[in-house]
Amino acid sequence: MEFRLIGKDIRKSFGRLLVFDSINFELINGSSLAIAGKNGSGKSTLVKIIAGLLSPSSGEVIYQVDGREIDKLDWFKFVGFVAPYLQLYDEFTGYENLEILAKIRGLKSYEAKIKNVLERVNLYSRRDDLVRGYSSGMKQRLKYACALLHDPIVLILDEPTSNLDSEGVEMVWAIAEEQKKNGILIVATNEPEELKMCDEVINLDELKLKMKRQIVK
Amino acid sequence: MLSSIWAIFLKDLKSEIRTRYALNALLMFVVVTISMILFATAGEVMSGELLSGLLWVVIFFSAMSGLSRTFVSEEDRGTVIFLQLATRPSVVYFGKLLFNLVLIFGINFFVVIAYLLTMENFKVKSFDVFLSALILGGLGLASASTIIAAIIAKANTKGTLYPVLSFPVLLPLLITTINMTQLSIEGAKLAETFGHLRILFSYFVVVVIASYLLFDYIWKE
Q1: Number of Cβ pairs closer than 8 Å across A and B?
Q2: Per the structure, how many domains does chain B have?
Q3: pLDDT tens digits, residue range A1-50?
Q4: What CA–CA distance (Å, rounded) separates B161 from B167?
Q5: Are A42 and A19 in contact (CB under 8 A)?
Q6: Residue B201's domain spans which residues?
């Protein structure tokens, strides 16, 4: 299956505030894209647009499978998303959160899959604890488990290693490497080290500088 | 799709049982409101017509205090993205609608039992008419409240906005259900209330279809 993720002239503004303009990219299976920039540069806004959580002010994001465009309502089937602002249900256990997600997604025989992802993020022994009692690092690991549950083609990581210990950081790098084998990896970060996870980089600060220069000219 | 709707309903039900986010407030509201009516009317003999109206006042405000929570709690806790990334917007809408339907029928059941036990003059002569009003009124109340809850969940002034926005939308429904409840006390036959039944059923169908069409735009920014 050939998957293509295309961003065409993406522009986003909130009222009069222009966040970014003219973002273009094209990603296929095996490719990866890092989105860099300072705080407030619009990294999270851009990844939300790519995931379909926000609409761009102009331009478009296109998902294609074997040349056929995917309806925006079905993007969720292809996307795994990890971000600090993604919250889980803290009145449920880690296992229950994954079970709920699997049922909502309509996944078949999900028990083995849940066990697999929980082991992958090293949370299997704490699966029956309420998320309320998890540390911030454990919650971040559970977000990875949620994102990987349906084997997404596009894995989007916003600040991928926030709250994680060194072992957790290694886990993220392993997940990123695995994702790049067959899928698409998108990482939004302001850590120079994390930019190395990806083959291509969009720097939103440089883009803004370029836009300003064009205006001056 | 049906299994996903059911999964969202079960998630909300389980969450409600564990957190009592809406249930406690609802039950307290019903108890307090009925007590207030009893204190305010102590010694007065109230007509069946007046009691019919008061019954729906209790149901309306109880619904206002509880039905918004399905969406407001997701927004407050920041779990909206979890759902947005898991399924289609329409699945979320129908899952939440199902939960609100169960909640409103639970409220109706509790209010009616409390009402029948405490209001001496509230004597229903046509139970089929009364039940039809409760069921169709509940369907309409839940369907309109669900979509309004989805809208106000994005606003800053959720608490005050909900009854203000709901009242004009629910007014035709409330007038019809109050009329039907009065007819049930007067002993009218079900055949005599077909006009009311048609209005209530049409209201439910129109609101659900309009909500289904609009929900995509409300759910995602």
Answers
A1: 72
A2: 1
A3: 788 999 998 998 888 888 888 888 888 998 988 898 888 888 999 999 99
A4: 10
A5: yes
A6: 2-220
